[in-house]
Amino acid sequence: MIGAIQIINKNPPEGPGLFTEKDRQLLEEVADYSAKMIQKVHRPDVKMSDTELAYYLSRLTDHDYFEIADDFVPDDKLMNLVGEKNLKKFLVLPVKKIGSQAVEIAISNPVDFDRIDNFRWATKLEVTKIVVSAESRIKKVIDGFFKAESTGIDEVAALVDSEFGADVESIELEEDVNEESTPIVQLANRIIEDAYSRRASDIHIEPFEKEVLVRYRIDGVCRVALKLPPNSQKALISRLKIMAGLNIAERRLPQDGRIKFKEFTRTGIDIDLRVATGPMVFGEKVVMRILDKASTSVSLDMMGYSQHNLEIYEKIIDSPYGMILHVGPTGSGKTTTLYAALNHINSPEINIQTAEDPVEYMLFGINQMQMRREIGLTFASALRCYLRQDPDVILVGEIRDLETAEIAIEASLTGHLLFSTLHTNDAAGTVTRFIDMGIQPFLVSSSLLLVCAQRLLRKLCPKCKEQYEASEEEIQLLEHLAEGATLFRGKGCEACSGTGYKGRIGTHEILTMNDAIKEAVLRSASSEEIREEAIKNGMIPIYMDSMEKAAKGITSIEEVLRSVRKS
Question: Among 318, 319, 402, 521, which residue's CB has the most CB atoms within a 10 Å radius?
């Protein structure tokens, strides 16, 4: 706590806010008790504005007075660092950052030590200097800053609500949702911009009987972002379908499309969105997957691999031929990791070709093919085509059936390095899944180089994570870590929208083939036996890899238990 202030100015200037000697004594007393009610210092018979009061308090307590002019511009980085919630809660204005973890602040009451201490605790910033300003001026700056920073989505939604809230006929035709239909056009753009700024991976627009819900999937969890009147649904969906090049008159069947957002905005946001519509009971639902082009520049060391796993993975993907598989549920980061692997090995000396459904990102120097099942262009037919096009490396988006699996194994056995994905839960189960599909065990043991099972874990917010001592139950979950281990959890803050988490990181288990595992495959051993052999061969189970990340303060025990099953 900041110590009691020192009353140096014994003779503040005469004026309407004159303080008596009794006032000074009271101020010293109140300061010693954290000055919970500074108003007790001010004589009730004297009428003063908050500007006058701030000035006299600054003189009386020997703090500088800071005049906030009408044209005052706050430091935007510093304002965002402290966060809107903290600024509005404590009515403290950060004036200047000092070093990496300290600030100078303006406050209306320099002896309100409770408020200053709570501010320091909430922001994890040291307060090294205090200046005094009028509370009304501080509030005006804070409100003005965050109003200017707003994306405008709430304002646009209000316009839509006023236009479509009544029982009016919904917009039906393409010409009705063109650039003249300002609220709907603006709303469609603002939803995408807002979701992108909040790091959402998907946008869900869901019609219900009494409202339309807009939800964002952020760090793997859906959150409600907006509620709209039900009559706005057709107009909004029609606008998004136009942007995606879909048929707005067809509402009975699912449709897939793609939005190049740069063509519809002046913000400079260069993203694509994969759009999927589906007929629901109360109208069409739209899901948009945000494809950030910056994701194509990711490298393997950004994928969350432990040093042990990264060394193994980088060594195997430099092999001249064989099969490398990434497995896990939808949304576990398989595509991003595969792109990182292709970026790692890509060079002018080799020919890389991919078969994808859909092509999510464009990769320079790599030949990519979009699957079109409606005309017979499948993974299997694309693979047959590629085998005649002199490839060195082939990526197949997913092995879905026996035919694709057989051609993929043929490619990996004839001098090609093949990457693909499969929907299985763990690395060992992938081996038996191939055999269950009808592939001969000797082909699996001969072609397979590596299986990487993966998940995504939410990372603890760096601004609000805090240490705590592990309980006995948590120590048992950690297994190999020593007693007394220090764990971390997120409290929730403005930066992470109160969730305690911000961003995600991969967690993995990597199975590589050796003679013992090949022998187990040849005799059609169970996945449990293969798993035991893999662990003997150095495989770290995904559960333990995840717990290592919890022990290092990257994620929490709760997040590991939510995302990863202990085998």
Answer: 521
